[in-house]
Design goal:
Helix content of chain A: 40-55%
Number of strands of chain A: 16
CATH class of chain B: Alpha Beta
Structural class of chain A: alpha+beta
Shape of chain A: globular
CATH architecture of chain B: 3-Layer(aba) Sandwich
Distance between the termini of chain A: 30 Å
Oligomer: heterodimer
CATH architecture of one domain in chain A: Orthogonal Bundle
Number of strands of chain B: 5
Number of domains of chain B: 1
Largest sheet of chain A: 4 strands, mixed
Number of helices of chain A: 16
Structural class of chain B: alpha/beta
Largest interface: A-B, 64 and 57 residues
CATH superfamily of chain B: HybD-like
Order of helices and strands of chain B: EHEHEEHEHHH
Largest sheet of chain B: 5 strands, mixed
CATH topology of chain B: Rossmann fold
CATH superfamily of one domain in chain A: Cytochrome-c3 Hydrogenase, chain B
């Protein structure tokens, strides 16, 4: 097989992410895919360690969403020890989780997805960056986003223990209650969060809905895949970030499965391809039919778009209104347009802010009883949350002393791996012909996966195999035809 | 005037933790006008780490052919290209902070230690990579001194 094209940045200062494009003898795209994080090393590392350490260890998998791993691991410990945390502990966890989702979505919406979402998918390449976003949305925007994040991060630090690697989650509860003083201060932040959410919504109205070309661009076939969708829902089939059942809908929006996280292995299997060590999760009962769309294909996706497709409603008032409008504008449910993830994220920002407010204004949040001590002998536990990028599953087994004997993690980007590969492949095929590409390909292919907000975890540093430091395009004889060096 | 020395990396990922290790070894050695920080974050997420400092020195790792070799990465050369615009690069992070009217480092130097491709999770940095710490420490001290954060070279070693 000819050598692949690899697009790969080199330092954390530049960010992570890697796209590999295999060419045929004719220089056409044979298969393109996005490299997702490899977690086997972390799973192996957990074995032989105390279960209670898992929330701290797994929060180091990713510098971007430590709170998601910490929370999924903590929930897995609840299940491992068969302990039900007090209501207040669950409320605190969900509140902190809403704060985290809001913080992460805010950064993504404006500055990571912003080049596509705010500047617009059809804008010239030169303006599709952070500066372009600022130019389009106003000088004030950076200040607003950073100020909001600072407020939210202060809560994550105070209540979570450490902002990068939280330490508050314990089997059966949390380490720290919310005092009356904290409640008062957090209520003020919640007020600002609601205003911030309204600002995001308004910006969206002005910049996106005010531009008919935008809706046209996001609904274009190039960024559309009709797949299954998965997300957590509460008992009323409404979206929930922190707990509930996993629900799967087919490409027509019909529910085909709903199950507690502990049954995930009955519904999700992993497919291996000869050209990558990455495994592609698929819906077990439907089966792996290849990288194809449709109800007969086991390919599914997670993340904001999928979450909105998988639920029937939002549990907070403004988010529910926006939810209706979203489906109305995009031609009904489900929405299959990958770029609509950016819009879905706006709705989730509103939901996160409203949920944060609901919880911090609840009198029960200051109840000092935040821990139920585990008394059962540990054996096996599964914890599931909605990470910003989609369903996150932690599954542990332990001996009767609580020493882990196995660990299995599925991160959001892994669930999305097949669909991201399909998107990248579609984009690459449209721009690479005869083995020749210009650097415009970087942009095209990038946009195809950026809407998924794929995880470029620090764990990518640990991937086995080679990681070239530049983009190489080689013809079928292995001769270099073009290269983009990425030396610092 | 405050100088930030920021070590980047993941302490569970072998060689990748070298920036953190170097930063830790500087702890308490650079006086009151130099702050030492460590972070596992990247790209745009660094805005919040860099805010409020007059100058900064970043210690990181970079995949390379000769593990342990220290390279200076010119900040201007770290231009986002293609997929890395997703997690925008340091120049974008600084541009964002400036546009928001935040105080960001006026002077910035980035020292990166070359590391090997395969990292063992849970291990500390390899000997070859760890041997770079002394060199990094010297570079940080020289820079801090040249920028006026340390009185004299003699005083440092006193």
């Amino acid at each position: 097989m000819p050598e692949p094209v690899v697009i790969n940045p080199i330092t954390r200062l530049e960010g992570h992410g890697k796209v590999t494009i295999f060419l045929t003898d004719e220089g056409e795209v044979s298969r393109a895919y996005f490299q997702v994080p490899e977690l086997r090393g972390f799973e192996n590392f957990l074995v032989g360690r105390q279960a209670e350490d898992a929330p701290q260890i797994t929060s180091r998998i990713c510098g971007v969403c430590p709170t998601a791993h910490h929370t999924a691991a903590t929930k897995a410990l609840d299940d491992l020890y068969k302990v039900d945390p007090p209501m207040t502990a669950k409320m605190i966890r969900e509140m902190l989780y809403s704060v985290f989702m809001l913080e992460d979505h805010a950064l993504h919406l404006f500055f990571l997805g912003g080049p596509d979402f705010i500047v617009g998918p059809t804008a010239p390449k030169a303006s599709r960056n952070v500066l372009g976003v600022i130019q389009k949305a106003g000088l004030d925007i950076g200040k607003r986003v950073i100020a909001m994040r600072k407020d939210l991060r202060a809560i994550l630090t105070e209540l979570g223990g450490k902002v990068i690697h939280p330490v508050y989650g314990l089997p059966g509860g949390v380490a720290k209650p919310v005092t009356a003083d904290m409640q008062t201060r957090y209520q003020e932040v919640a007020g600002r969060a609601l205003k911030f959410a309204a600002f995001c919504e308004k910006l969206f109205e002005d910049v996106v809905l005010g531009n008919p070309d935008y809706v046209k661009a996001i609904t274009s076939d190039a960024y559309t895949h009709r797949t299954h969708y998965m997300g957590l829902v509460d008992a009323g089939m409404r979206e929930n970030f922190y707990e509930g059942q996993i629900r799967v809908v087919d490409p027509s929006g019909r529910e085909i499965a709903r199950f507690p996280g502990s049954q995930y292995l009955e519904h999700i299997a992993e497919h291996a391809e000869p050209w990558t060590y990455v495994k592609f999760p698929f819906l077990k009962k439907i089966g792996w039919k290849g990288f194809v769309d449709g109800a007969d294909s086991g390919v599914y996706s997670v993340a904001p778009l999928a979450r909105l497709n998988a639920c029937d409603d939002m549990s907070t008032p403004r988010a529910a209104e926006l939810y209706e409008k979203y489906f109305e504008t995009l031609g009904g449910k489900p929405v299959h347009h990958t770029l609509a993830n950016h819009w879905a994220r706006v709705i989730e920002i509103v939901y996160a802010a409203e949920r944060f407010q609901q919880l911090i204004f609840d009198r029960q949040i200051t109840d000092p009883n935040v821990r139920t001590l585990p008394t059962e002998t540990p054996a096996e536990g599964v914890g599931v949350v909605e990470a910003p990028r989609g369903v996150l599953i932690h599954h542990y087994k332990s001996d009767d002393r609580g020493i882990l004997t196995s660990a299995h993690l599925i991160v959001a980007t892994q669930h999305n791996a097949a669909r991201i590969a399909m998107s990248v492949d579609k984009a690459a095929r449209s721009v690479i012909h005869g083995g020749v590409v210009d650097d415009g390909i970087l942009n095209q292919v990038e946009m195809a996966f950026r809407a998924y907000d794929p995880c470029h975890a620090c764990a990518t540093h640990s991937m086995p195999g080679h990681m070239p430091l530049w983009v190489k395009i080689l013809d079928s004889g292995g001769e270099l035809v073009q290269e983009f060096r990425r030396d610092g | 005037m405050t100088l930030l020395v920021l070590g980047l990396g993941n302490d569970l990922l072998g060689d990748d933790g070298i920036g953190l290790l170097a930063a830790a070894s500087l702890e308490g050695h650079l006086g009151s006008r130099v702050e030492i920080a460590r972070s596992g974050r990247s790209g745009l997420y660094l805005v919040e780490e860099l805010e409020g400092y007059d100058d900064a020195i970043i210690l990181d790792s970079v995949l390379g052919e000769q593990p342990g070799r220290v390279r200076e990465l010119p900040a201007a050369a770290l231009r986002p290209l293609g997929p890395s615009a997703h997690y925008a690069g340091l120049p974008e992070a600084l541009a964002l902070a400036r546009s928001a009217g935040l105080r960001v480092p006026g002077r910035l130097r980035i020292f990166a230690v070359e590391i090997g491709v395969v990292q063992t999770i849970g291990s500390t940095p390899s000997l070859a990579v760890r041997s770079a710490v002394d060199g990094l420490v010297a570079l940080v001290k020289e820079t801090a001194s040249a920028w006026g954060y340390l009185p004299t070279r003699e005083a440092i070693h006193a």
